[in-house]
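Morning. Coffee machine broken again, so started the prediction first thing and wrote up yesterday's gels while waiting. Chain of 227 residues, entered below exactly as on the submission form.
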Amino acid sequence: MAKAKFGALVTDMRGKIGGHVFQGNGFTTSVRTGYSGKGGFAFRNVLFKEINTDIDHNYRDLTTTQKQDWDLLASKYPIADNFGDFIYLTGQNLYRRNYTAFYSSGQSGTIDPATAVSVLPSSELQFVAFNYAFQEIEVQFQNDRFSDAIIVYGRPVSRFGLAIKTAKLPFIYGEQDETPDPNLLWDAFFAQYPAFQQGGACQFGVVQVNEFGFQTFRKVIYGTFVP
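Came back before lunch.
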């Protein structure tokens, strides 16, 4: 769904409407024909459909007091929309958002909204290295940071220097650790892209998640890497 920002006229628009996508680059807004893709049965789609179904069922089972705790938590932590403006989610939407990140990053258990805090690391992704001899994909950060869990997104790109919009990067792997296991990340990547060859270009995005499901911005720590 598209979102418009109004002044005397429409000054900006982002999102999708009527088969067209409105997007901006910081200087201007452009429009292109939308493409829905063929990924209805892709691994990430099936995974997130299963996760979201479970999350919705679990939310309906919460007590009134528990739902109020989520409403209160949502009132404390706004999120940025497509324009970078801060908006407040409903308690139910924050519940869905945080639990999706929580489960996708390999964590288990429950989140207590009464004690949850949005404390996140600020480090940036330095590089992602392919080691074909040991079948590893290693993720390294620029500086020390802490994180309860991590989610990796990525895909091959057709040429060097080509960047995919980070929101469109497919889910690859999640793990409850500060850095993903290099061998498990290798297995997850090549399970989705078995035809990827040494010397090809690919792009990764990494999201760090805390124990309450709050996550860093994916666009802050991404890049295009040459294995």
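DSSP finds four helices and twelve strands in the chain. Going to sketch it on the whiteboard this afternoon.
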